Amino acid sequence: MLFDPNVILGNLDYLLWGRMAQGEPGGLLLTLLLSLSAGIASLGLGIPMGLLAWSRPGPIRQTLFWWADLIRGIPLIFVIFWVYFLVPALLGRDVPGSLSVILALAWFTSAAVMYSTVAGLDALPKGQWEAAQASGMSRLQALRWVLLPQALRNLRPSFVGLFISLIKDTSLAFILNVPELTTVAGQVNNRTQLYPTEIFLFTAALYFLLCGGLARLGQATSRVK
Amino acid sequence: MQFDWTGILTGAPLEWLKTGIVTTLVVTVVGSLLAALLTLGLLSLRLAGQKSLRALAVGITELFRNTPILVQILFWYFGAYNLLPRGWRDWINDDHPWATLPGNVPLLSPEFIASAWGLGLFTAVFVTEEIRAGLAAVSPGQSEAALSQGFSRWQTLRHVLLPQALSNAFQPVVGQFLNLMKLSSLATAIGLWEITYQVRQIESYNSHALEAFAAGTLLYLTIGLIMGRALLLLDPAKRRPLTPAPQPVEVRDAV
Amino acid sequence: MNEAPAPIIEFRQAEKSYGPHQVIRGVDLTVNKGEVVVICGPSGSGKSTLIRLVNRLESLSDGDILINGRSTAHLDGAELRRLRTSVGFVFQQFNLYPHLTAHGNITLALEKVLKLGKAEADRRAEELLNRVGLADKGQHYPSQLSGGQQQRVAIARTLAMQPEILLFDEPTSALDPEMIGEVLAVIRQLAEGGSTMLVVTHEMGFAREVADRVVFIDQGQILEDAPPAQFFGATRHPRARHFLKQLLSPLHNDGE
C-alpha cells in the first residue's frame, strides 16, 4: 500500500486556507472563522436565555428547556437545512452558505450554552445571592456583579468543551458545500481520486491537533487558577 | 407559505421515506450492537492492569473524540473500505436476498458498512468514557470493602464496581445511543439512503422543501422519543428503592 | 485466657510513611489469640493506619507484621487475597454494596471468593442476620436501612467469612448516638465469644468493660498498653493522661 504524501503537500495551501488569495477563505482558516463566529453568537444567545431561565423558574424556564430539547433532539444537519431554507424565505433574499452554517451552529449550540449557564448559576452557593440581596442590590445588579462573573468563571471549562464540539460540528458545512476543511478535503479527494486515505487521515490529524490542543490549553489554564 | 402534504406522502416520495425510515432504524440498531461490543473491548483495555494497554485505550479515545464524526465516516468509506481485501468487497457488492429490504434496497453495501462501523466505533469511545466516569464516581470505600474480603481486582470490578458504575452512567449512556441515531443522518454524505438522504431527494424531485424537511424533523423526533422511552425502561436504578420501605411499628431490639 | 498466650498478630518495628510524613514509627505490638485490644488516640495519631496495615489496605514502609507467625509484609496476589479472607474488616462508613440486598451483601464474597455453593451461602447469611438481630431485613437494600442496621449487616458480612481476626475501624463514629448501643452490643457479643479483635474506637465505656487491653497511640508511636483497670485508673504516660482527660471530661479542660 503506497502512502503518498505528495497529494497533501501539493494541496496543502488549499487545505489550510482555501482560496484566501482570491479573498475566499477556506479550509482550516474557514473552519476557525466559522467556529469563532458561531461560538460568539451562541454565547450571545445562550447566556441571556440561561439568565432568563434561571431567574424565572416555572413556565418560562420550562418553555425554554422544551425549546432547547427540541433543537437538540433533531440532528444538527437538519438544523442547518432548516436555517438554509427558512432564513432566505424570511429575509426575502439569498443567504450565503457560510452564514447559514454560522446561524445554525449558533442556534444549536446556544441550547447547550443555556443549559450550562443555568447549571453554573445553580451551582453557586446560595449565600452569594443572599449576601448581594442583603446589601440592597436588585436582582439584576446581583446577577451582573456577583453571580454571573463567578458562574462564568466556573463555566469556562464547560464552554471550552462546547467550543471544541463546535469546531467539529463545522464539518457539517460539507452538506452545503461551504469550503471549510472537510468540504475542501472532499473536493481534493474527488479531484485526485487515488489518495483518500492520505487526505482524510491528514484532515483528521488537523482537527486532532486543533481540538486536542485546545483541550490541553483549557486544562492547563483552569489548573493555574 | 402553503403546505402540500400530498406531495410527499404519496407515490414515489412515500416509498422513499419508508426506505429511509427502515434504513435509519437498521443502521441505528446495527451500529448500536457494534458500539456495545466495541465498548466491551475498549473498556477492558482502559481498565487493564498493564499501563501500555491503558495508554492504548486513552490514545484511541483521544483520537476519536477530537476528530469530527463526519471525517471519520468519510475516512472509513473512501479510505479504509478500499483497504479491505478485494474478495470481501466483491462479496459485499453481490446481491444478497437475505440482506435486501423491500424496494430492492441492499443492506450490505459499502455505504451501510462504513456508516454502521463508523458510528459504532465513535459511540463506543464515548460510552466507554461515560462508564469510566461512572466508575470514578463510585466511593473508594467500595473498593476497600471488596479487597478486604479477598476479591481480586477483576472480581472487584465485575461484582462491585461496574454494576454501580453502569447504574451511575445509565442516563448518559442512553444519551449516547440516541446520539448515534441522530448522527446516522450524516451518512447522507456518503450516499446511505437513510431519512436525510431521502428528504433531500424528495426536495430535489418536487421542490417540496418545507414539507419534506418537516416530515424528516418529525420522524427524527418521534424515533428519538420512542427509543429514549424504551431504553429508559432498562434503567437498573429503577429496580432499587431509594426511600425506606414502609415499616411496621417495631419493638426496639433488646440489647 | 486459660492457655499459654499464642501470638496471632505481631507488629515488628512497623513503619509507614507517606513521603516525608511518617505516620507509624517503629511500632511493636503483639496480640494474642482471643484477645480484645482497643486502640485509641487523638486524630492523626495513626490508629486507623495501624489496623489497615494488618489486612494490607495500607502497605508497610518498613518492618513486618506476622500473622500466625508468618511474615505478611511482602505477600501478594493470591496469597494476599487468602490472608484477607481470614482477616475481617469493619469500616467506619460501613461500605455496604448498595446495589445488593443485605442478604446479597453477605453472600457475594461467600460465593465468589470462598466459592461456597448457593445453599451454604444462603444458610450462613440467614444465620448471621439472625445473630445480629436483623433476621427480617435480608431483602432490604442498604438505602432502606438505618446507620446502625447497616453497620450490623456489615459486621454480619465480615463474620460470614469466618475470619480468624476481626478489625474494627471506628465502627460507631459515623452513627447517630441512639444507634451506637445496638452496634456495640453486637461487638461485645463477639468479644465475649472469644474472637481475636482489634478495635479502634473512642467509646471508652466499651473499652473499660470489654477490652482485655487498651493501647494508646500518638504521632505513630504506642505510648501506653495496659489492661483497662490500669489504663484508666493508673495511666502512666502524660500524653495518654491528657488524652483521657480531654475525652472523658471535655468541659473541664484547663488548657493544660
Number of strands of chain A: 2
Query: How many strand segments of chain C?
Result: 10
**Oligomerization state of this entry?**
heterotrimer
Uncertain segments of chain A are: none
Number of domains of chain A: 1
Low-pLDDT parts of chain C are none
Shape summary of chain A: elongated
Strand portion of chain A: under 5%
Count the DSSP helices of chain A: 9
Integer average pLDDT of chain A: 88
**CATH superfamily membership of the largest domain in chain C, which one?**
P-loop containing nucleotide triphosphate hydrolases
Helix/strand structural class of chain C: alpha/beta
Keywords:
heterotrimer; A: 225 residues; mainly alpha; MetI-like fold; two-stranded antiparallel ribbon; 9 helices; elongated; B: 255 residues; 69% helix; disordered C terminus
Q: Strands, helices and their partners?
A:
The complex is a heterotrimer of chains A (225), B (255) and C (256).
Chain A lengths: L5 H12 E2 L4 E2 L1 H29 L3 H15 L2 H16 L5 H26 L3 H9 L4 H31 L11 H12 L3 H29 L1
Helix pairs in contact in A: 1-2, 1-8, 2-3, 2-5, 2-7, 2-8, 3-5, 4-5, 5-7, 6-7, 7-9, 8-9
Chain B lengths: L5 H4 L1 H36 L4 H15 L3 H11 L6 H8 L6 E2 L3 E2 L3 H27 L3 H9 L4 H31 L11 H12 L2 H24 L23
Antiparallel strand pairs in B: 1-2
Helix pairs in contact in B: 2-3, 2-6, 2-9, 3-6, 4-6, 6-8, 7-8, 8-10, 9-10
Chain C lengths: L6 E12 L2 E12 L3 E5 L6 H8 L7 E6 L2 E2 L5 H9 L1 E4 L11 H11 L5 H14 L15 H13 L5 E5 L7 H16 L3 E5 L3 H7 L2 E6 L2 E6 L1 H6 L4 H11 L8
Parallel strand pairs in C: 3-8, 3-9, 6-7, 7-8
Antiparallel strand pairs in C: 1-2, 1-4, 4-5, 9-10
Summarize the structure.
The complex is a heterotrimer of chains A (225), B (255) and C (256). With 225 residues, chain A is mainly α.
How would you describe this structure to a colleague?
The complex is a heterotrimer of chains A (225), B (255) and C (256). By secondary structure, chain A is an all-alpha fold. Chain A is built from nine helices and two strands, in the order αββαααααααα. Chain B is an all-alpha fold and 255 residues long. Chain B has one domain (6-233): MetI-like (MetI-like fold). Chain B has helices at residues 6-9, 11-46, 51-65, 69-79, 86-93, 110-136, 140-148, 153-183, 195-206, 209-232, and strands at 100-101, 105-106. In chain B, a hairpin with a 3-residue loop joins β1 (100-101) and β2. In chain B, α8 (153-183) packs antiparallel against α10 (209-232). Residues 247-255 of chain B have low confidence and may be disordered. With 256 residues, chain C is α/β, with parallel strands linked by helices. Chain C contains nine helices and ten strands. A six-stranded mixed sheet of chain C has the order 6-7-8-3-9-10, sandwiched between helices. The longest helix of chain C has 16 residues, at 177-192. The model of chain C has no long low-confidence stretch (mean pLDDT 92). Chains A and B meet through α4, α7, α8 and α9 of A and α3, α4 and α10 of B.
